[in-house]
Amino acid sequence: MKILITGGCGFVGSNLAIFLKNKLNNAKISSLDNLYRKGSEINLKRLKKNKIKNYKIDIKNQKQILRLKKFDIIIDCCAEAAIEISRKNPDRVIHTNLIGTYNILKKVLKDKSKIIFLSSSRVYSIKRLRELIRKQKILSKIKIRKSISEKFSTNSPKSIYGLTKKASEDLIREFSYIFKIKYIINRFGVISGPWQFGKQDQGFVSLWIARHIYKKDLSYIGYGGLGNQIRDIIHIDDVCEIILKQINSISKKFNQTFNIGGGLKNRVSLKQLTIISQNLTGNKFKISKKPKTSDYDIPYYVTDNTKLKKTFNWSPHKSIHIITRDIYLWILKNKKILKKYF
Ligand SMILES: NC(=O)c1ccc[n+]([C@@H]2O[C@H](COP(=O)([O-])OP(=O)(O)OC[C@H]3O[C@@H](n4cnc5c(N)ncnc54)[C@H](O)[C@@H]3O)[C@@H](O)[C@H]2O)c1
User: Fold this and answer.
1) 11-52, pLDDT tens digit by residue?
2) Domains, the chain
3) Ligand 1 within 6 A of 162 CB?
4) CB 124 within 8 A of CB 158
5) Strand locations in 84-238, DSSP E?
6) Which of the four pLDDT bands, split at 50, 70 and 90, describes residue 92?
7) What distance in Å separates the CA atoms of residue 125 and residue 154, rounded to the nearest whole number?
8) Predicted TM-score (pTM) above 0.90
9) Which residue among 118, 195, 235, 260 has the greatest number of ligand 1 atoms within 8 angstroms of its CB, and so is best to mutate?
């Protein structure tokens, strides 16, 4: 089996490529990545060490993609994944995420192969997500055990990033309808773990722990600057495990869309993450407050994994404590090299 992972030098792509290389004895794993993301050059070295080839191609370049050899499955992990770029550089988000998916679909069609697409919880309506907690005046008092299923509203604005993910999903479904392409779409919540070069708007768990290790500034942004916003977190190892299951069963279980995330047991507020980071590192410092947040921000997101569990008889199993410990140990082990990335 020949597998191409786009965005293979990114956080998800590189971990997945190495995981699949170790688990699938007869598979040949390749990567496509133009090394745009800061840190991807480090992940490229990890791929090389594991004898995984990277094609340094811009995903916008359809001609070059169509010239590549034939693959059996493409796992599309390439994106401009930072939501705030939606405002600063919408061209980049649309070209990379939407045109990129279109180019990959053309290749899937040419090869008569299958596609596993990494979508996002950001396909859901910002307004509706905010309404979930609107009645609660103080976020810290929220005891809601609400989780979001695939049926949640995708109408109304969701950021240009979210739009490109939803539009890519629809494009995949159109290709499937007319050209009979087999697909799986995974709408992931927050994924975390080693080799993520986290930023405030993408990869905040690794950013939080790293800044505690290096004693660098952090801010609670929005919702009064109290750090009460909540997300559920899934370990990258769990993500790799479920994608392997999907690869092994895609001939039977296909053309479906799943929400995948840490779920209720893995939900954490920023304030709680600060305490975890302090306990791990022994470092404590004042976190500044920025009460106003971005129009794209949401106070709460937790995944409902029911459909995933029913279909694959599988749920994520690595806890917040394992996730944060693994990130902490990764940074400690590579403390000098990683400093400039956080
Ligand atoms: N990390 C998360 O929490 C999360 C959550 C939900 C969905 N996702 C989705 O999962 C996928 C992987 O995310 P990630 O966290 O690994 O992101 P990442 O930024 O670490 O990886 C993306 C990779 O794509 C490459 N890339 C960017 N533009 C490119 C272009 N024009 N041509 C070729 N390569 C290009 C980058 O160099 C990078 O290595 C993305 O589609 C993202 O939207 C991630």
Assistant:
1) 999 999 999 999 999 999 999 999 999 999 999 999 999 999
2) 2-341 (3.40.50.720)
3) no
4) yes
5) 114-120, 183-188, 190-192, 219-221, 230-235
6) very high
7) 5
8) yes
9) 118
